[in-house]
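Hey, I'm writing a tutorial for new members on how sequence and structure tokens pair up, and I'd like a real worked example in the thread rather than a made-up one. If someone can provide the structure for the chain below, I'll link this post from the tutorial.
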Amino acid sequence: MQTLTQPDFNSQRFKANPYPFYARLREEAPVFRIKGPANEVGWLVTRYDDAAMVLKHASASKDRLGNMTPEQRAKVPWFVNLFEPLSQNMLSRDPPDHTRLRSLVHKAFTPKLIERLRTRVQVLSDGLLDAVQRKGSMELVEQYAFLLPVTIIAEMLGVPSGDYRKFQRWSNRLISNTTMRDVFLSIPSVVMFTRYLRKLIAMRRSSPGDDLLSALIQAEEAGEKLTPDELVSMAFLLLVAGHETTVNLISGGTLALLQHPEQLERLRKDPALIGPAVEELLRYASPVEVSTERFAKEDITVGGVTIPRGDLVFAVLASANRDERHFKDPNTLDLSREPNKHLSFGLGIHYCLGAPLARLEGQIAIQTLVNRFPNLRLSKPADSLKWRTGILMRGPKQLPVSLK
């Protein structure tokens, strides 16, 4: 048997099907040592129970520099500091800062308020599909899976529609970082994204609207709740997290259905199945492959392995979601799977704030697509598809489909 080596998250071959490798890790090395982007020590945690523990563990911190030893901090390259303006958000903070920042936006993402967006999401889905119906084909990622969630979150934040493609490019570049070379090459995207957000905030400050960004600006102006850098960073997080994961849910979920025509037909015949179907697609396709990193505040024992203070810790959601100890026939797509307590939205205090919105968008987008186009099929072989690279996300880069 081949020796286990660190996976290449920039490899098309690995991203196309990482599941056999994760299955080996769960059996042979469930807490697996890797080298991080800055040559720091990191650990992939692959079993469900261990990953759940990491996601909830009080000593698995989000504060990178604050939990490094002096020796580890001295090894951090100088240019990493350029990312600081975009990292002062609730996803990168521990309590009490995390609690304070999350409280400022959580009311905008309650299930009740998100439900009010149902009509807008449906109208937008119909409009995007109207635009491609006559042609009889589309590139599903660019023309549907991206445009739907990015339009919704941009409207919520008050971002001009002409700017969507700009921050898509910057966002894709930043979340694809795996090596230190990637991090270095993404510096222009950091600078441009930060500059763009500062201009957008200045525009909203002088001309506030009925949007989430204006509300955050008002909170910042009230003092103590939000600093100017936190405002920039929160806008960054909401824009990026508000569309990136849902792009993968819609595109990766559609691909999974096309590869399992019997399940696709079940969904067409029983529209009421869409709720559990999206939960199963979240589990099976795992739009977020690996959770954002944690840092050991102290030595932590996970799965019998001691992770030293300051090391990176990654919960591998795509692996946990297929753990045979937790799911029956985990490699089988079953749209009526019950129970289905997947980890795709995380756990604990960092549980995805936008989960209700992602579910709503995924349900409407996928149901509308499969109902409108009974002959929906791939336009090219599945094994020739290109995949997004990087450690965090997993989804097809492009998904050309025929509609007739």
